[in-house]
Write a structure and sequence with these properties.
With 336 residues, the protein is an alpha/beta fold. It contains 13 helices and eleven strands. Strand 8, helix 10 and strand 9 form a beta-alpha-beta unit. The chain is elongated and about 70 Å long.
């Protein structure tokens, strides 16, 4: 018997897209609709009549597919998702990318989970075709770099980056550096800091702010070497954006310049990290807890056949603290 999954696989779309073509609940592009309809005819797919179809049995379990590792923001996300699920009388089944396709298929084929939440899976992830073919709701946390037609909750990097770049420009900064991780998994939950950096570079260039990205490992020795190299090659830098909270303490310790008198610092980090630094750091927070709760809500609403937005964006705030100030040049101009 041909299923909706077979049609979705043949058309290269998610099962939900096939469903939308059939029920008209969401606008679908003409090309996609034509492709799906051709596959339906070619495969001889016959949709089940909702009035006679057997209702899906609820297991009260949500699956959470997450990268391996022990990032603080990742733990905060998982904790928030567990709390949100528990508040809705749901259990959370944690799967890791290390379990691979076999583990994912084992968990989902036995109908042990009503829906799946996927944390930080790029569009190029080998699991993506399997995720798109699942016959139950999938919510992506973090926008994949390729279209998947899956529901997604993410952060509005453009707005946050624009605010950060605008803040530095308003203080008179004209040259800044982004100190980034050398490994994707160091960037934090949902890959958010790295994606923020890309948006920041674009926003800064529009404002005439010169930006240089300096990859750096997490050790104190590596951070010290990166900073020495950075300022030796470009002494005009007066602003620093720290991409990963894992290196923030080392940056402040080995900077060799006064913050914010000589160099202003903005970090992509959790609020508690920014607050307990020697100089309270201006930051773009990672709202991992809010993302976790929203992902659970979207997954359950999809299971109940409620309409959910294809992409739900949260707008992170720029919290201004003590680590950013006017450049020395801007201050001297004011005094004159």
């Amino acid at each position: 018997m041909v299923t909706i999954i077979d049609v979705a696989r043949a058309a290269g779309v998610a099962p939900s897209t096939v469903s939308y073509v059939l029920n008209g609940k969401r606008p679908i592009s003409a090309d996609t609709r034509r492709q799906v309809e051709q596959c339906i005819r070619r495969l001889g797919y016959r949709p089940l009549n909702r009035r006679t179809a057997t209702p899906r049995v609820r297991t009260n379990v949500l699956g959470l597919l997450a990268p391996g590792g022990s990032m603080p923001a990742m733990a905060e996300f998982v904790s928030a998702a567990m709390t949100a699920a528990g508040g809705r009388e749901q259990d959370l089944l944690l799967l890791t990318h290390d379990s691979g396709l076999a583990g994912l298929r084992r968990a989902m084929s036995t109908a042990v989970a009503d829906a799946l939440i996927v944390l930080d899976a790029p569009g190029s992830d080998p699991m993506m075709p399997a995720l798109m073919a699942l016959d139950r709701p999938v919510v992506m946390v973090g926008t994949p770099d390729r279209s998947t037609n899956l529901a997604c909750v993410d952060l509005d990097y453009g707005v946050a980056a624009s605010r950060a770049a605008g803040h530095l420009v308003s203080l008179g900064h004209r040259a800044v550096a982004v100190l980034g991780s050398t490994r994707v998994q160091d960037a934090g939950a949902c890959g958010y800091p790295r994606r923020f950096t890309r948006a920041f570079q674009a926003a800064a260039e529009k404002r005439g702010l010169r930006v240089r990205r300096q990859p750096c490992a997490c050790s104190h020795e590596a951070v010290r070497h990166c900073l020495d190299e950075l300022f030796a090659e470009d002494p005009a830098i007066t602003g620093l954006v720290v991409e990963s909270e894992l290196v923030l303490a080392a940056v402040l310790q080995h900077l060799g310049r006064r913050v914010p008198t000589d160099v202003s610092v903005i970090a992509v980090c959790r609020d508690d990290v920014a607050e307990r630094s020697p100089v309270r750091v201006t930051s773009v927070p990672v709202p991992a807890a809010q993302l976790g709760g929203l992902a659970v809500d979207m997954a359950l609403r999809q299971f109940d056949n409620d309409e959910v937005p294809a992409v739900r964006l949260l707008t992170p705030a720029l919290t201004i603290r003590e680590s950013t100030a006017p450049t020395p040049v801007a201050l001297s101009g004011t005094l004159c």
